[in-house]
Amino acid sequence: MPSVGEPMPVREANFLLALLRQGAPVIAATPNELPAGLDDPTPVSAVHRISALAATDAAAPRDPLMVRATRYAVLLPLAYRIVLIPVVWLWLVAAFGFGEVHSATAVAAVAVLSNVGSLIWVLRVPDRSGAVTRNLLYADVVFALAANVLVSATVPGDLYARATWVPWIYLSGTVALWTVSRGVPAGLFLVALSAPLQAVMLWTSDLPRITTIEVAGAVSGTGMLLVAVVTAVGALILVGLGTRLALAIGLRRGRTAERARADRFLHDTVLQSLEAMALTSADDAADPGGQLARLRGLARAQATELRRGLDKPEEPQPSHGLGEELAALATEMARDGLRAQLVFADLHDDALSEVRRIAVRDAVREALRNTIKHAGTRKVVVRLEEREGGIAVIARDHGVGYDESERPPGFGVSKSMKARLAEVGGRCTVESRPGHGTRVTLWVPR
């Protein structure tokens, strides 16, 4: 039978039913599609949200990382026993001394040490196959049953009802552990197993006779195990449904981010090139052959760039720093008639991460494209310097400028430059006045 951390066969598609029947491993099912509206931020009733979550597909493929992460569900039952068993044992020893409850003391010591070791092992060791976890679950059941029989058979009859609390709390943790890791049927099976277990405990005890008090104690002990099942089910449902909701939100945000990335890529490549091709020039009539050659060269370069973006090469292109990227960008802009004067301060920009370097480079490209299209000038100064513990790039032109209060932000400013830098922890500031040109300041932390 599969264990926590090991892929399990799915017998039904309803997520909540599968979760209750099979336990935490079902949480690892990660469907590519979830019901529409599941991640809708509009407030809806809890019943509606839970019903939508419960009906999601549990027969989806299991993600290996999520499969291993489901093992963490056992941490709560382990912590429960680590905290509660010493408390009960201290109460027992304070009331009756060590001599009368030596077996309960031994059980408490082994229980706490083994649970602390199990907790550390779960946190530190990635049991990829799940075999060790499975064996530990079976060993836990054996120890829980044996500990209850040992204590009941060795303590004096007048301490039976009190001393057996130590191993019984351990057993309640075992019931919760199996409910979480294997599902409700496994937990209820252990509850049912407690009936013959308590019969054996009473038979091996030093009680002179079995009275209604012992019978009532057996009933309350069974009730305690049922409470453990209910508590474990509540934790399982909360974690399972919460994880499924987080998955839905992650899918929505991931798709939104991917769409934004694709929009920026098309804007910064295809659209920019098409707009550059559409620009008129005095050379159109004077040298049509040269202009045609330039357009073809621009089209070939753009096709190469677009293919590179679609192919998504496995290894990033090597670079010696942002300065090199800006120099290549200035050469690219020169083909479109923009003269970019580069001013580099004495700094080490090669320590900038690749994702931030690319974000700054593409934002500078957008700023220079805007200069070509809107500034009415063919000159721009690009300065690279260190500022506020990060790297700043300032693009300054002396073109026509514009009034920011009257001109709505275009795609290139709000959705390309500012959004791109915000994603990597940076910022973009645009300053412009009619007749005084435009200054674009891009900043990213190191």
Report on the structure:
Among the domains are: 67-250, no CATH class; 321-446, Histidine kinase-like ATPase, C-terminal domain (Heat Shock Protein 90), CATH 3.30.565. Helix content is 62%, strand content 8%. The chain is built from 15 helices and 5 strands. β1, α14 and β2 (379-387) form a beta-alpha-beta unit. The two termini are 50 Å apart. Residues 5-11 have low confidence and may be disordered.
Task: Itemize the secondary structure elements and their pairings.
Layout: H1 15-22, H2 46-54, H3 64-69, H4 75-96, H5 102-124, H6 131-154, H7 160-163, H8 165-182, H9 184-204, H10 212-278, H11 283-286, H12 288-311, H13 322-334, E1 339-344, H14 354-375, E2 379-387, E3 390-397, H15 411-423, E4 427-432, E5 438-445
Parallel strand pairs: 1-2
Antiparallel strand pairs: 2-3, 3-5, 4-5
Helix pairs in contact: 4-5, 4-8, 6-8, 6-9, 8-9, 8-10, 9-10, 10-12, 10-14, 13-14, 14-15
Helix-strand string: HHHHHHHHHHHHHEHEEHEE
Percent helix: 55-70%
Q: Reading side by side through the largest sheet, how are the strands ordered?
A: 1-2-3-5-4
Q: Tally the beta strands.
A: 5
Percent in strands:
5-15%
Radius of gyration, taken over Cα atoms and rounded to an integer in Å: 34 Å
Mean pLDDT: 81
SS-based structural class?
alpha+beta
- Uncertain segments of ≥5 residues (pLDDT<50)? 5-11
Largest sheet: 5 strands, mixed
Any idea what the shape is? elongated
Kindly report the oligomeric state of this protein.
Answer: single chain
Number of helices: 15
Distance from N terminus to C terminus (CA atoms, Å) equals 50 Å
